[in-house]
């Protein structure tokens, strides 16, 4: 059986590296994309990989597509496949404004950058335990 996957979409390679280290520490496989369009193209070709994903960490502000737009598209793919995994908004901007925007736009929870490892570990643990979407919000 393949390891569960935690997905990361961020245009900053340092953020991806930091998130991947935390993901590996929890015994998961990271699947990372620097570009939201690349992420969507990947899953158009390999929809079966969606079954292995337990959560997705998505940067809110990326040049080619905002993270909330990507979250909407990923949620549509989830619904088509009958899946639900948490979509986590990651941002370094004003937490109150971003939290509101994140919850209004398909995200299940918010993770402030710079990321506190214990907060990320808690989110991954909840995803592994298959907590309901309402428990993340």
What does this protein look like?
By secondary structure, the chain is α/β, with parallel strands linked by helices. It has six helices and five strands, in the order E-H-E-H-E-H-E-H-E-H-H. It has helices at residues 13-25, 36-45, 67-81, 95-104, 117-128, 133-136, and strands at 5-9, 29-33, 53-59, 87-91, 109-112. Strands 2-1-3-4-5 form a five-stranded parallel beta sheet, with helices on both faces. Strand 3, helix 3 (67-81) and strand 4 form a beta-alpha-beta unit. The longest helix is centred in the middle third of the chain and has 15 residues, at 67-81. The model has no long low-confidence stretch (mean pLDDT 87).
Shape: globular
Please tell me the overall pLDDT: 87
SS field, number of helical segments: 6
Strand order of the main beta sheet, please? Answer: 2-1-3-4-5
What order do the SSEs take from the amino end to the carboxyl end, as H and E? EHEHEHEHEHH
Low confidence ranges: none
- Counting DSSP E segments of at least 2 residues, the number of strands comes to 5
Q: What share of the residues does DSSP label as strand, in percent? A: 15-25%
Secondary-structure-based class equals alpha/beta
């Amino acid at each position: 059986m393949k390891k569960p996957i935690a997905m990361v979409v961020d245009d900053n390679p340092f953020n991806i590296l930091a998130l991947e280290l935390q993901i590996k520490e929890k015994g998961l496989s990271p699947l990372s994309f620097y570009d939201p369009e690349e992420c969507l193209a990947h899953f158009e070709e390999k929809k079966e990989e969606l079954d292995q994903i337990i959560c997705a960490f998505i940067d809110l502000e990326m040049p080619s597509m905002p993270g909330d737009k990507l979250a909407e598209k990923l949620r549509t793919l989830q619904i088509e496949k009958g899946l639900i995994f948490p979509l986590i908004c990651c941002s370094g901007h004003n937490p109150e404004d971003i939290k509101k925007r994140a919850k209004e736009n398909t995200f299940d929870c918010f993770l402030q950058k710079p990321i506190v490892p214990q907060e990320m570990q808690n989110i991954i643990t909840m995803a592994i335990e298959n907590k309901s979407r309402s428990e993340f919000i």
